[in-house]
Amino acid sequence: MEHYDVVVVGAGLAGLVAGATAAGTGVSTLILDGHLPGGRASTDVKGRYRFNRGAHGQFQGGENTAVLGRLGVSVPGAPAPFELARGRVGDQVDFLPSNTRTLLRTTLVGARGKLALARLMAGAKRWQPERVAGLTIAEWLDGFHLPDDARALMRMLVRTATYVQDDDHVSADVAVTQIRLALTHGAHYVHGGWATLVDGLITAARRNGAEVRPGQSVTSVGASGAGVAVVADGQEISAGAVVLAAGTPDAAAVVLDRRPEAWAGLGPQVEVSCLDLGLRARPAQPVLYAIDRPIYLGDHATRAEGLCPDGGGLVHVLRYLAQGEEIPVDTLRESMEEHARYAGVDPAMIEERRFLHRMTVVGATPTPATGGLAGRPGVDSTGVPGVYVAG
Q1: How confident is the model over 364-389, as a mean pLDDT?
Q2: Are 286 and 349 in contact (CB under 8 A)?
Q3: What counts of helices (H) and strands (E) characterise the chain?
Q4: DSSP run (H or E) holding 242
Q5: What is the DSSP letter of 383?
Q6: Distance between CA 352 and CA 207 in Å, rounded?
Q7: What torsion do the CA atoms of 324, 330, 332, 336 make, to the nearest 10 degrees?
Q8: Using an 8 Å Cβ cutoff, are 372 and 174 in contact?
Q9: What is the pLDDT of residues 318-349, one digit of tens each?
Q10: Stretch (H or E) spanning 51
């Protein structure tokens, strides 16, 4: 029987970081995944284009930046082109109010809305997430008494920073934390797609001595004597400790054959629909946010290199889904294709396309009832000695 000091279940970003970190302390480490490494951070090659699984922006200056630095992982990229962003309300497309100049020029928000937004955003960098952890996003926004057009724009900003289209359940500190991070440090599009980040973490894990073993599915994890037994493809592996980085609480619960009591208060998962387009030419509007509906479009090839042929475009269109929202597939796709046309995407420009109907982007959301971000279950919340969670 094989034995490792640490076995990591899942080779997405959280699993690779956990494995590289553990191996860096000198313990024997094995990272297992039934698929190729990367998870939702994978980049899929389709013809002459490299599609991420949905639109990804790497926030700068947060904990992820510090972790990558400690592991010696460099992620080349370029700032997202927010200065080129446009907004859409109905059939109207104009400047997205992202700074004082565009706020004054845009016709998407009225005079009262502009004044309210200017006052609100002037203090945004001083917001304290812990002070609003007991509020939902909707309750937090209520406190600003915004005109309808200004509130719609704030809801768009929340969606962009968090993927969340669920103001009535998710704690406001999630939105405040992400918006502050975006305003303070910005986000980058990654050269070559997020596979660049995944490859860097694999290299770091192996450099530290970890073994990365894809194509081996873990079916169960449980206590065994003084350690932990991991069953993968019918073979038992002995471990001193196990890190579950399986992607979602539901996936981890299947491996554990139980749902830990500490996870009972977890909020709902977050889903999006995604339309990926490989374009022969770049669209007129490389970034287009719908303000009155939960749709976003971004051409990542505007800044990131190595995603498509020279002069082409690599567009992601996201439709954020509310909790329990069920929309016919054709209706979803048509609304996203329509939004792409408002950005200047002519069907004749499209060389490759991919439609992902429902994709989980957040496994569980913090809620006010559990204390927001600070109330999330700890790494040792599985209830099984020696089994921890990441992600």
Answers
A1: 95
A2: no
A3: 10, 19
A4: strand 235-244
A5: S
A6: 36
A7: 170
A8: yes
A9: 999 998 899 999 999 999 999 999 999 999 99
A10: strand 49-52
Residue given tokens 């991070």 in the structure block? 181
List of residues 6+ apart from 70 with CB closer than 8 A: 21
Region 242-248: what's the mean pLDDT?
94
Picking from 78, 80, 77, the residue whose alpha carbon sits closest to that of residue 96 is: 80
**Crossing angle of helices 13-24 and 195-207, rounded to 10°:** 20
Angle CA 154–156–112, to nearest 5:
40
pTM: 0.94
- Characterize 327-355 residue by residue with b for buried, 16 or more Cβ atoms within 10 angstroms of its Cβ, and e for exposed: eeeeebbebbbebbebbbbeeebbbbbee
Can you read off the two tokens belonging to residue 214? 């894809």
Where does the chain have alpha helices with state H?
Answer: 13-24, 63-71, 100-105, 111-122, 137-142, 148-162, 172-185, 195-207, 249-256, 329-342
- Sign of the Cα pseudo-torsion (381, 382, 385, 391, in order): negative
Residue 78 contacts residue 304 (beta carbons within 8 Å): yes
SS3 117: helix
| Residues 76-135: tens digit of each pLDDT | 999 999 889 999 999 999 999 988 899 999 999 999 999 999 999 988 889 999 999 999
Is 205:19 a contact under the CB 8 Å cutoff? Answer: yes
Whether 359 and 269 have beta carbons less than 8 Å apart is answered as: no
**Tens digit of each residue's pLDDT (9 = 90 or more) over 255-311:** 999 999 999 989 989 999 999 999 999 999 999 999 999 999 999 999 999 999 999
Angle subtended at Cα 48 by Cα 358 and Cα 34, rounded to the nearest 5 degrees: 45
Distances (CA, A) of 311 to 7, 79, 106: 45, 19, 29
Instruction: Report the largest interatomic distance among the alpha carbons of the chain, rounded to a whole angstrom.
Output: 71
Structure tokens at 122: 């002037």
